[in-house]
Here is the input.
Amino acid sequence: MPSTADFKNGLCIEYNNDLYTIVEFQHVKPGKGPAFVRTKLKSLTSGKVIENTFNAGVKITTARIERRPHQFLYKDDLGYHFMDSNNFEQVPLNKDLVSAPEFLKEGQEVEVVYHDETETPLNCELPPFVELKITYSEPGVKGDTATNATKTATLETGVNIQVPLFVNENEMIKVDTRTGTYVERVK
Here is the structure.
């Protein structure tokens, strides 16, 4: 059975009747007292990040998870529908299981994380960057701006984000799905 000595980033463990992945950890050996491990754990079911301290050498229960490629098909009243790229089965997921649903467009490739023992989907992760087309944007006004000025742009998925003044309507841009911010224009 693994212990705290086996901690590494990305390891999935069972803790408090939930599945957590280790975001970061640090082994601490104070001059006085026993050693311990400080961790940041992210829940795979709710997405919450918690901090926890384990005593060194404590036995832990690891959980097996599997990442499978899926393709986004459509959204309706039942949720978001994805197709497994390996066996072409359709999987409906609730909105709260999708990491950034506002950046999903039809045909988008994503990864769905499954609990290996129960075969239940835990969450859906978009790629870190997606390329989307701007459907509406006010024209940028040239002027003497001292700082980076931005304007609101509507993307093809219907979400509004802030973009620099030089970006125009009908251009493709790269968006960071983790923060929801503009990255660059796509040529």
Notes: The chain has a mean pLDDT of 89.
